[in-house]
Amino acid sequence: MSGDFASALGGRIYQRLDRVLLAVSALMLVFAVAAQPDLSLLTGFWAIQISEAGLITDPVTTGGVGAALLNGALLLLLGTLLVRKLKLPFTGAALACLFMLGGFALLGKNLVNSLPIVVGCWLYSRFRGEPFTRYVYLALYATCLSPMVSFVMVRGRPGLRWLSMLLCGLTIGFLVPAIAQFSTRIHQGYNLYNVGFAAGILGLGMASIIKGIGVEFDTVTTWSQEGHTVLLVLVLLMLAGLMACGVLMGCRSWSGYRRILRHSGRAVADFILLDGVPQTFVNMALVGAIGLAYLLALYPLGVRLNGPLVCCLMSMTGFAAFGKHPKNVLPVMAGAVLASLLLVKVPLTAPGVLLATLFCTGLAPIAGQFGWRWGVVAGFLHMCIVQNTGILHGGMNLYNNGFAAGLVCVFLVPIIEAVTPETKEE
Question: Cβ(408)–Cβ(381) under 8 Å?
């Protein structure tokens, strides 16, 4: 993409991409009202705000399908408005971050436990004397530690709960940016969920301190089976809309799309900047469809869409604007499935295994950079490692798979580079 064209495109299109996010937010809101068209929508929404939200928590079981979607719609809307207020361009980085924000509102994040963390990141930017625009995406990603904020709020002493919650959130938001900027150097861009790795490190430290004073984390998995049809139609409309936008905007042939497949996906790989908006939208639809097709293939085994699984699909879709494409996600997913089939304790349909199979695609750059065989190995290792990482941070890091992916990189990438010294560059 030429510099002049990119500049013109930035003026005409980048600032319009917020409409896609606003449309997704509106779609979630419509489905929220349709699924729960009574007062239970609001009472369920409030129940989600004041509940514990550790890994794995399905807000559908707490407040209902509509309330969970309302929570997602509002978080996505507020995140989009924040980025627009700061006048940042809506590139692949923004789409990845905001789709993940809206998705994880269906797996633990809410307005109450996320806002103090964002404010903490803002305070960090003020402390550094730097504009908040430099940290806004880190702030939104850092909300992955929001369950710790909810934990302090629910378990704290009466009269001090809200103050304790606020201080906890501010501390997390203040510390995550510094750790995240360092952790990127550890995995060298091969883990797309970098903040998950950083948050895992911080969560490990904070959870260890809390456990040291005698407080134990009780991780109770909630996993709903209701709402499958509503959520399926929602996801299908979202993916169809992205595909339609991509085709109507000009990506109508294989030759136009396949340029994206040449990228390894190693961060920073912003497909909107590298290849254009139409190709990126088509890629987002295709990657999201891969995740959805996998889950539907397990329908006969009892798998139904719920909050956490829609979270996975939205995260995959968002990061298809920032590193993922079919060529680099399929090998990693195949490795995760292979591990599940070979290892006795990780059945395909278990909640954590389903999440890991979709979230392991954060390691897609390994397949893109070193080939599909190493992608399979990465997915296999990820499935093994992620079974044991949640206990380290007490289930307080919603990006547990990002934490595990970082550990896979630390273990695997040096080995790959040692045995294959000549690797292809993007």
Answer: yes
pLDDT tens for the chain, residues 1 to 426: 434 434 444 445 666 789 999 999 999 999 999 999 999 999 999 999 999 888 888 999 999 999 999 999 999 999 999 999 999 999 999 999 999 999 999 999 999 999 999 999 999 999 999 999 999 999 999 999 999 999 989 887 777 888 999 999 999 999 999 999 888 888 888 999 999 999 999 999 988 888 887 777 777 788 998 899 999 999 999 999 999 999 999 999 998 899 999 999 998 899 999 999 999 999 999 999 999 999 999 999 999 999 999 999 999 999 999 999 999 999 999 999 999 999 867 789 999 999 999 999 999 999 999 999 999 999 999 999 999 998 888 889 999 999 999 999 999 999 999 998 665 444
397 within 8 A of 371, measured Cβ to Cβ: no
Per-domain boundaries in the chain: 3-212, 228-419
Please give the Cα distance from 319 to 405 (Å, whole number). 15
Contact by Cβ (8 Å): 249, 277: yes
d(CA 250, CA 236): 21
What does pTM read for this prediction?
Answer: 0.93
